[in-house]
């Protein structure tokens, strides 16, 4: 009886091991994911806006999209319209935002969204420290984010 049970569990275990594999399928244009950057980031400091203002608007960027040809398909929300863009983050701390677009809703207070949209396209540097992402341009403008899964 022990031999039968041992044989049965051996075959069962072997079958589970051979049939349960994890694979990541990637097209020839997709590269590895970057979990350090590819997260949802909540905006916590920008311009003269207070943190409660940013929280009230649910201000965030979403960089969880796939990387294709070195670019992450991203999205942003600053309280009214959904924005979309392509972003490219290089190992040397430089970055590029391109292809910015958005829905066209008209909301009562669009100050944050208007200023964010204007400044976001000029961000050319990034820095990650702990759970914080800081974007900056050549004029000293910065945007600071915290990882949404951290706050």
Which secondary structure elements does this structure contain, and how are they paired or packed?
Blueprint (H helix, E strand, L loop, with lengths): L1 H18 L20 E7 L4 H6 L3 E3 L4 E2 L2 E7 L4 E8 L5 E8 L8 H10 L4 E5 L2 E5 L5 E6 L4
Antiparallel strand pairs: 1-2, 1-9, 2-4, 3-4, 4-5, 5-6, 7-8, 8-9
Structural commentary:
- The chain is of the alpha+beta class.
- Helices cover 23% and strands 34% of the residues.
- It has 3 helices and 9 strands.
- A hairpin with a 4-residue loop joins β4 and β5.
- About 8% of the residues have low confidence.
Summed up, what is this model?
Helices cover 23% and strands 34% of the residues. It has 151 residues and is an alpha+beta fold. The N and C termini lie far apart (56 Å).
Order of helices and strands: HEHEEEEEHEEE
Helical residues, percent: 10-25%
Low-confidence stretches: 20-31
Gap between N and C termini = 56 Å
**Total of DSSP H or I helical runs spanning 4+ residues:** 3
- Number of DSSP strands? 9
| Range of strand content | 25-35%
Counting helices, strands and paired strands, the structural category is alpha+beta
| CA gyration radius, whole angstroms | 22 Å
**What summary fits the major beta sheet?**
9 strands, antiparallel
Output the keywords:
151 residues, alpha+beta, 9 strands, 23% helix
């Amino acid at each position: 009886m022990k031999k039968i049970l041992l044989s049965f569990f051996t075959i069962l275990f072997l079958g589970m091991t051979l049939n349960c594999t994890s694979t990541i399928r990637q097209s020839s244009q997709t590269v590895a994911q970057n979990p350090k950057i590819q997260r949802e980031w909540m905006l916590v400091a920008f311009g003269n806006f207070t943190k409660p203002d940013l929280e009230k608007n649910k201000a965030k960027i979403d960089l969880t999209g796939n990387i294709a040809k070195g670019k992450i398909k991203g999205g942003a929300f600053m309280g009214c319209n959904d924005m979309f863009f392509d972003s490219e983050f290089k190992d040397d701390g430089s970055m590029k935002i391109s292809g910015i677009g958005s829905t066209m809703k008209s909301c009562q207070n669009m100050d944050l969204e208007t200023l964010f949209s204007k400044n976001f396209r000029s961000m050319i540097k990034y820095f990650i420290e702990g759970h914080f992402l800081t974007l900056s341009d050549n004029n000293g403008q910065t945007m600071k984010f915290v990882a949404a899964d951290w706050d």
